Amino acid sequence: MKYPIQCAVAASVIIALGACTPAPDGANTQSNVSEPAVSQTNNADVDASKATENILLAPFEGPYGGVPAFDKMDLSQLKPALETGMAMSLANYDAIANNPEPANFANTIVEMERASTELRRVFTYWGIWASNKSSEEFRAIQREMAPEISAYQSKISQNKALFERVKAVYESEELKTLSTEEQRITWMAYNQFVRNGALLNEADQARYAQINQELASLHTQFSNNILADEENYVLYLDENQLDGLPDSFIKAAAGMAEERGQAGKYAITNTRSSMDPFLTYSTDRSLREKVWKTYYSRGDNADEFDNNDIIKQILSLRHERISLLGYDNYAQWRLEDRMAKNPENAMNLMQQVWPAAIARVEEEVADMQAIADAQGDDITIEPWDYRFYAEKVRQDKYALDSDEVKQYLQLDKLRDAMFYVAGRLFNFEFTPVPDGKVPVFHEDVKVWEVADKTSGKFIGLWYLDPFARQGKRSGAWATTYRSYTTFDGETSVLSSNNSNFVKGAEGEPTLISWDDAETYFHEFGHALHFLAADVVYPSSHSGVRDYTEFQSQLLERWLLTDEVINQFLVHYQTGEAIPKELVAKIKQASTFNEGFKTTEYMASAIMDLLYHTTDPALIEPDTFEREELTKLGMPEEIVMRHRSTHFGHIFSGEGYAAAYYGYMWAEVLTSDAAEAFAQAPGGYYDEELGERLVKYLFAVRNAMDPEEAYRKFRGRDAKVEALMRDRGFPVTSSEGD
């Protein structure tokens, strides 16, 4: 399992009441950036000509059904585009709400799907500035507009006349005659109104809206504080401080230093893509400690970018808001329409796995300490030692050298491997788009056409932005600039993958670790989820948080198939295929260090649930984090994957708030589905099972209840025992198959 590095699905928008509205912080949100025809709804007194004057509002033009004008995006146009787009959207919603005709699906729900066409385009560009090319100028606009965007969202959710029309459709006899997808998006529209305060009295609605505005500003500040600490802390090394580091890493570090005006030095940036390999290979323990402490103290330095007080404010405001709705805690509200249904079910899953995970950590630490003692290192394993000595254990137990494996993991070859898998499972063919034909926002970005191999039908474009750089947030994510719909004419998909790999030296391939290769496949799984979509309406692209990681987690499994290994894992210098003996070692070590990976992730997931089920008045973040982890028996040698002060998944927005457990929930589905492929006659490329995979797990998006969709694929519900087997954890005989 590839536990999340930053976020796996991110976008500039979230679905809200049939309209696409932005997550002001660029937080981790399920993408829904479809591009239906321009709304025919009356725009009232809004000057529609502004939509053509401002490139950020204008329809996408050019080839492939139109593409974003990334080469013309101008930050000076962002604020006016947002203001105009929101005004046009609100006018459309008002027109729907005030329609004198009786409410029905066509004149209410369908019109809501069209209401924010222009604004969706603005948020496509917003997302690029927020995630791929951030700047102080953008962050100033972000801070200013976040509460304005929140106020816009509240005007929709508190439009009583609009809610009454949605309610009328939801309670009508017509609902029974609608398709499964139409019934589901009607329910989602009604449910979101109710969950966002539509039934509150006027005073409580006003307070609810005010809280949302305050939260929007705080989420933005939290996110920008993390980015500031990542940008402000760069460690420059001299040549005599590079002992143990692989040549490829050294060359990349030299390149990053030169980019920052420090030629002759070697830059270790404050991001996971730089920190992780440094801690794995550097023999300088004092430097490992420094790099580790700098990374894990992001947002926790008692300075202007400290996030502790912001966390308290966020938790208090969230609690106050859900109290208005009658819930006991935020997690109750958040999870009631997720697969878990309530925080107790989510926590129960965590508790089933946690004891086995920390028991495995104890074994791992013992193995590492034994090696340290045998070498006469005279140390006790600390958190900054874990990766370093784990690598030594890997070599000792499995004779597996991570750097040796890396020589066979070329970024471009792995991309070709992903295309191969997409061709076998989805019948997709990827063809490079010539440079200059499609506008991009950075020279590193490349684009491919995606078509059906058999019919030649054009499906969409795939954008790839693979490398780390200043102004780009850390982690890896996927998004869409336009999603597939058919209700206003068929639209092609504009999908995107974004990573932070350290670029190889000039003229040399970019080599990545096995974990990074899994991440690469993981994010591509999200892209395939976008590209395979076969739905009618934009709202069907909204995601159920504890389900949306499942498809991408599952795609990681194809990295270890023989077809991929034998064709695409070749040595970057000799071109020879990876030796079978090395592959055998990789497979034998597949559950190696699982205690570390599972525990650091689960600590974050459990803390997320604890933060959102505890009275905020009792929480001082640093103390709360430390005390609660102690109660859990958190091993001293490991910290949370995302410590509270840089836990952007839950405090930079609300996409994963009280829902970070969802990766584990989805992994139960992943492990169970993987066993189905392992047992199929054709293995991971079994045609019949592959067809069900695409039909029920990818193409339907959120047009079908996830539990029903999984049962259609598997023939039954998923079982947690598959997860335990996958992790190499003990499964008791009473648990069954």
The level of helicity is: 40-55%
Range of strand content: 5-15%
Mean pLDDT: 91
Q: Report the strand count.
A: 9
The global form is globular
Sequence of strands across the biggest β-sheet: 5-6-7-9-8
**Cα-atom Rg, whole angstroms?**
25 Å
Q: Helical region count?
A: 28
What structural class should be given to the helix and strand makeup? Answer: alpha+beta
Please summarize the sheet with the most strands. Answer: 5 strands, mixed
Q: Regarding quaternary structure, how should these chains be classified? A: single chain
Ends: how far apart? 20 Å
Task: Point out poorly predicted stretches.
Answer: 1-44, 733-737
What this model shows, in words?
With 737 residues, this protein is an alpha+beta fold. It has a domain of 64 residues. It contains 28 helices and 9 strands. The strands form 3 sheets. The chain has a 5-stranded mixed beta sheet. Strands 1-2 form a two-stranded antiparallel ribbon. A two-stranded antiparallel sheet has the order 3-4. The relative contact order is 0.13. The N terminus and C terminus are likely disordered.
